[in-house]
Here is the input.
Amino acid sequence: MSTSTTNPNKALWEKGDFTHIAQSMRDSGETLVRDLGIAPGMRVLDVGCGDGTTAVPAAQLGADVLGVDIASNLVAAGNARAREFGLDNLTFQEGDASDLKDLGDEQFDLVVSIFGAMFAPRPFDVAKELVRVTRPGGRIVMGNWIPGDPTLVAQILRISSSYSPPPPEGFVSPMTWGVEDNVIERFTAAGVPKEQVSFQKDTYTFNFPGSPPELLNEFRTYYGPTMNAFEAASANGREAELQAELDDLFNEQNRSDTATSIPATFLRVDVRH
Ligand SMILES: C[S@@+](CC[C@H](N)C(=O)[O-])C[C@H]1O[C@@H](n2cnc3c(N)ncnc32)[C@H](O)[C@@H]1O
Here is the structure.
């Protein structure tokens, strides 16, 4: 009998293959990174980096970039992309945003986490770790989906969770990272004065060369939370209902006549350390 324990957070993201979704997010990742004042030689950490939607453009601007992600398949995919782009200033390694134990204190000028650290357990530990690894005078930028927001990803996550079994007791929803008061509470507990935490609403656009149902199929096949929702729905005979609900969502939100382009609103958090 195996004695290894399963980390459900890691298992969720290794279950699928987020690289398929990430391909529709590259344009927005580049736009966001261009706005961060990255200069050659800056030390940048990307937490929950996936296969490098933001880490790659940061390295292309000349920063020394480390991407950390809990999913070993995405770390491997990120390192393959770094090689493909000839970026020897970009490395990916496995790690957990709740406990960045391989990283020393005050190592980074800029710590970025776009829809990444929000999915880690123990949000107060996450804030503490992000602050710990940032040098005094440095900056942390998070992108977090917003609960109750009517746009794509918040709705995918809402619909997916309504078909999934209830989370274990004590589970803190990742969506709480999209609530300003929660974010302030977590960073002030990590020692950052409230005045040094600011917010703005921003947009990521999912661009996909196929139709909205084809993009939905990518989520159904490769995106852990949606895969789990379909498994639970099919066990309860509700698969067609979930498919119809998500089909409506993707079709209604599409802004392109020829392919798929869906804007999604998120909360951008800027922390001055
Ligand atoms: C929605 S994806 C976003 C990936 C990437 N930031 C991007 O913009 O394409 C969420 C990412 O967070 C990672 N993740 C989830 N929990 C994590 C944790 N505890 N520590 C580090 N990464 C985590 C997942 O493996 C996944 O790559």
Residues 69 and 94 are 5 Å apart (CA to CA). The chain is about 40% helix and 20% strand. The mean pLDDT is 96. The two ends are 47 Å apart (CA to CA).
